[in-house]
Amino acid sequence: MSLPLLTIVLAAGMGKRMRSARPKVLHEIAGRSMLGHVLARAQSLGEGRAAVVVGPQMGSVAEDAQQWRPDAEIFVQQAQQGTADAVLAAKPALEAHQGDVLVLYGDTPLITTKTLQDMRASLDDGARVVVLGFTPEDPTGYGRLLVDAKGNLSAIREHKDASDAERAVTLCNSGVMAFRIDDLAGALAKIDNNNQNSEYYLTDMVEHVVAAGGRVSVVVGSEDEVLGVNSRDQLAEAEAIWQRRRRTEVMQAGVTMIAPETVWFSHDTQFGQDVFIEPNVFFGPNVEIGDGVIIRANCHLTGASVGAGATIGPFARLRPGADLAQNVHVGNFVEIKNVQLGEGAKANHLSYLGDGKVGAGANIGAGTIFCNYDGFFKHQTEIGAGSFIGSNSALVAPVKIGDGAYVGSGSVITKNVSDNALALERSSQDERPGWAEKFRKLMADRKRRATKS
To answer: Which pLDDT band holds residue 344 (cuts at 50, 70, 90)?
Structure first.
């Protein structure tokens, strides 16, 4: 039976190879920091406490941790003296905890819930320590996991310290470990730093436990799961792996994608059933898509809600606050920001709709602009149900168009329009017969004279 769980996430490294002013674990995959992914994965195991170990002057990491996991306790590792020292930075949490301890890394965001569940199951099966191993294509540089005839782990040998026979072993150490030890803080305090780097290694716990007669087991995960991100190219690799996984999940849940490899999701994108997505679509954070929605090619959605049966795009942009009801049509080169569109409303061509509300069944003509910003403040535009906005109209907010009203094409509307009224705002057309012919003759004569001179 599983015991209460404390997850300690080590996140004190700056990550110099990232060439960034930001701490490494704050770099994002699918719109969420790597640290956020790790904390979410730990939380997927159910109830339990979380502690995050950060370095000095890494308040941004602490803030990020508590954004994703408000109950996370934050501890500071004053000097980076190895992984055992990092875990001991959370000594108050360890001493206040009775149960299992899971140690994860803030730059290893792809571990699956199932793998962590398997590690906990191995503790339930009698192991005192569980090590997550993997078999890479090239094991060079990784610590080797040396197992006995019964499949239990006897030691972890660093590559530089391994014999030729040990280097032939392909099962490698990921660094992720789980413990069921009554006084883990006390056990960690017994680890010494008698090694080339003068550091305190968490992996030394294996030989300590084995020497005391305890069993150490290995759970094997995929190489993808344990990918540690230390550089920008590895960040891109991790993003690609995450996206491949999510595409598969989304399709299995009832979404059709013509070219899945061209569709990019955020960590929190939500879909109904029978959604159809054409190529080259990008979902930023906070997007919710209802049943039966069609998203045409080359659309960009962030912070938007799309009701059932709606059609979006191609080449549409939905920005934060775009709230589309059922059966809305948003067409090519339409940008919507902070606007509610009622059921069946249409904006099919070349429009900007910002800060407002569009009633059910309204039709927004091509080239319509909500002029929402006066240089200092944003203002609202309200368009009533069943109204018709003619092409190339500018609605200068704050302004309200009544239900069933018509706005003539090319109008600049600065005053409210009553229900069922027609609003026109344009200069009278002035026609001058024969003017064009006279103008062409005049200009041709000027051109001849200029050529002769």
So the answer is: very high
CA gap 251, 201 in Å, rounded:
43
Q: Which of 173, 174, 207 is nearest to 190 (CA)?
A: 207
Catalogue the active-site residues: 349
Question: Is the domain covering 252-423 a CATH 3.40.30.10 domain?
Answer: no
Task: In whole angstroms, give the CA distance from residue 374 to residue 358.
Answer: 21
420: tokens are 């069922």
**93, 75 contact by CB (below 8 A):** yes
pLDDT tens digits for range 143-201: 999 998 888 999 898 888 888 999 999 999 999 999 999 999 999 999 998 877 788 99
Contacts with 82 (C-beta within 8 Å, 6 or more apart), sequence order: 193, 197, 199, 200, 201, 202
CATH class of 5-220: alpha beta
Amino acid identity at 380: Q
Contact 440, 422 (CB under 8 A): no
Backbone angles phi, psi at 182, to 5 degrees: -55, -45
Phi first, then psi: what are they for 39, rounded to 5°? -65, -40
Q: What residue spans in the chain does CATH classification 2.160.10.10 cover? A: 252-423
Question: pTM of this prediction?
Answer: 0.90
